[in-house]
UniProtKB/TrEMBL annotation:
Superkingdom of origin organism: Bacteria
Statement: the UniProt record of this protein carries the keyword Acetylation: yes
Any Pfam family matching the protein: AMP-binding
Protein name as it appears in the record: Acetate--CoA ligase
PANTHER family: ACETYL-COENZYME A SYNTHETASE, ACETYL-COENZYME A SYNTHETASE 1
Organism: Pedobacter gandavensis
Enzyme class: ligase
Length: 630
């Protein structure tokens, strides 16, 4: 299923558009099915109702584990590199990983988890996280992984939305020189989560934790009570595999739902092709499994292809700025898939951290999560790839399940900051505000997709209407991505960023409304408006304009207090970089905040604020500008 030349790409692309069902059936044939499908695809984007490989039966863990055992049982499936470089790394062969997954799946069963039940996973980046994810899939439970940086309240909201029965966590997590008390956060979260019956706790940091009788049990104790024999549950292709929450332009995060068959085919196909993965190579994706990139390209994509996937617990700058490169050297990484924010942050340390490090094993480099600026692209290319490794700038989303627009390594000629061309099966179109297609090249528009692909979301958990409204109602019969996009003279795509009220901070999506809600919960705050602004390392930073009439004495302390509240409500990742206290916000006569103006001010571009005559009170703009200069 690998494409090896640009001609082959063009032929494959044509087939995938002319005969999508035939094309995807051919790709799906490379996977293990207990029973093949009756129908490849049925769909409409109006409800939406999307079904791939209907009637097929499978278990994704048989694709990720069992099918590799005969020939590759001893091959490393997961290599784990700990936060602390003086500690040993761990390698799990396919055989061992299979055993651990089966064993832990039996633990879940013993604790009452059944097919279809939802399980929340809040864990550090340790091999047991992958084991927990796969164990859920083994028995047909639906996992909902929550990133370790979210607050108790965010976790509680997610647990309640999905009505999770079990939580899997650890005592704590190491992140650089910090420790995160995961179990404590879970304890706080569970005060308001009536559906949770069990909490399974892995020992990792050995920090003291409270264990509630009748609810909390230790991972290490439980696995001793079960054996490693756990036949995989037979699942329908359209059964739920997982829920992953993501921010949108409205207040509450949505539970994006992916189903088993289509997601598996899409994650596996895109992994194999985009990175041109070769047998025995080591693939290193630096994302956290708490995000979609980790789901698709640490766990499911690589394992479905029998690849060796490297899991890194730490951060690129701990104990120093050479750490990521040392990990590449130590494990002879062949493919490195990381984020522009990491590149920019490491770039700022200059070339010294690269001294004496042998990264000649590298063959392919990848970027994901946000637009990569040309400077970072060239730095990555010259200093890490030595001009010899193709860079695949992969555009995709939580909702798309896998990479959508991207070069194929060694096939597609790259161009800095361009995601280049759609993968086979992906039909992008650009539309104007009214939804009219913008044809031809050298044009800008809102990026939509006009035909289904197997990895696409099926619904938003518990609220199908929301899925319809968010993605399928802006433009009729199109999936709307929320991104703006340029198609240049060569027909190459460059993603220009979100066109909705979502800020992309270090590759993480944060809804402005979510941050505003959190700020507004702070005592004394009357109102707030949040926008993004260009940030050297993070890509975008968060700028908050806050009305707080009675700051008694210390405005700086009040700022810090507000940051505390945001950390409590959402998590540290949503903390504003700047807070400006103002007495009014620019509003239209109908009461809508004009973010366009605030965005300009946050960017420091006040020369051209556009038409402000429709404002209720244009003088507030002057006040904000004056204050922003201080
Ligand atoms: C995979 C992932 C999705 C949003 C997406 C877009 C931005 C992702 C990008 C990119 C430019 C790239 N984005 N990859 N922008 N170039 N290569 O990141 O999923 O967390 O859901 O974010 O990220 O704005 O809409 P997710």
């Amino acid at each position: 299923m690998q494409i090896n030349s640009i001609e082959e790409y063009q032929e494959t692309y044509k087939l995938s558009v002319d005969q999508p069902e035939q094309f995807w059936a051919g790709i799906a044939d490379n996977f293990l099915w207990r029973k093949k499908w009756d129908k490849v695809l049925s769909w409409n984007f109006s409800e939406p109702n999307i079904k791939w490989f209907e009637g097929a039966k499978l278990n994704i863990t048989e694709n990720c584990l069992d099918r590799h055992l005969a020939e590759n049982g001893d091959k490393p499936a997961i290599i784990w590199e700990p936060n602390d470089p003086t500690k040993d790394s761990i390698t799990l062969s396919y055989k061992i990983l299979h055993e651990q997954v089966c064993r832990f799946a039996n633990v879940l069963k013993k604790n009452g988890v059944k097919k279809g039940d939802r399980v929340c996973i809040y864990m550090p980046m340790v091999p047991e996280l992958a084991v927990a994810v796969l164990a859920c899939a083994r028995i047909g439970a639906v996992h909902s992984v929550v990133f370790g940086g979210f607050s108790a309240k965010s976790i509680a909201d997610r647990i309640n939305d999905a009505e999770c029965k079990v939580v899997i966590t650890a005592d704590g997590a190491f992140r650089g020189n910090k420790q995160i008390q995961l179990k404590e956060v879970i304890d706080d979260a569970l005060i308001g989560c009536p559906t949770v019956e069990r909490v399974i706790v892995l020992t990792h940091t050995r920090t003291p934790v409270s264990m509630l009788k009748g609810r909390d049990i230790w991972w290490e104790d439980e696995i001793k009570l079960v054996d490693t024999n756990c036949p995989a549950e037979e699942m329908d292709a359209e059964d739920l595999l997982f829920i992953l929450y993501t921010s949108g332009s409205t207040g509450k995060p949505k539970g994006v739902v992916h189903t088993i068959g289509g997601y598996m085919v899409y994650a596996g196909y895109t992994f194999s092709n985009v990175f041109h993965y070769q047998k025995d190579e080591v693939f290193f994706c630096t994302a956290d499994i708490g995000w979609i990139t980790g789901h698709s390209y640490i766990v499911y994509g690589p394992l479905s292809q029998g690849a060796t996937t490297l899991m890194f617990e730490g951060i690129p700058t701990y104990p120093d700025a050479s750490r990521m490169w040392q990990v590449v050297e130590k494990h002879k990484v062949n493919i490195l898939y990381t984020a522009p924010t990491a590149i920019r942050s490491l770039m700022s340390f200059g070339l010294a951290p690269l001294n004496g490090i042998d990264m000649s094993s590298l063959r392919v480099l990848g970027s994901v999560g946000e637009p990569i600026n040309e400077e970072a692209w060239h730095w990555f290319d010259e200093n890490i790839g030595k001009g010899e490794c193709p860079i695949v700038d992969t555009w995709w989303q939580t909702e798309t399940g896998g990479i959508m627009i991207s070069p194929i390594a060694f096939v597609t000629p790259t161009k800095p900051s361009f995601a280049t061309l759609p993968l086979p099966g992906i039909q992008p179109i650009l539309v104007d505000e009214k939804g009219v297609e913008i044809e031809g090249n050298g044009v800008n528009g809102n990026l939509c997709i006009k035909f289904p692909w197997p990895g696409m979301l099926r619904t938003t958990y518990g609220d199908h209407e929301r899925c319809k409204l968010t993605y399928f109602s802006t433009y009729e019969n199109l999936y709307f991505t929320g991104d703006g996009c340029l198609r240049d003279e060569d027909g190459y795509y460059r993603i220009t960023g979100r066109v909705d009220d979502v800020i992309n901070v270090s590759g993480h999506r944060i809804g402005t409304a979510e941050v505003e809600n959190a700020i507004n919960m702070h005592a004394g705050v009357v109102e707030s408006a949040v926008v993004g602004f260009p940030h050297e390392v993070k890509g975008q930073g968060i700028y908050a304009f806050v009305i707080f009439p009675n700051i008694h004495d210390d405005a700086d302390l009040t700022r810090k207090d507000i940051l505390q509240t945001v950390t409590r409500v959402i998590g540290a990742i949503a903390k504003p970089d700047k807070i400006l206290f103002v007495t009014g916000l620019p509003k239209t006569r109908s009461g809508k905040i004009m973010r366009r103006i605030l965005r300009k001010i946050a960017e420091g571009d006040i020369s051209n604020l556009g038409d402000i005559s429709t404002l209720l009170d244009p003088t507030v703009v002057e006040e904000i500008i004056e204050k922003s200069k201080k």
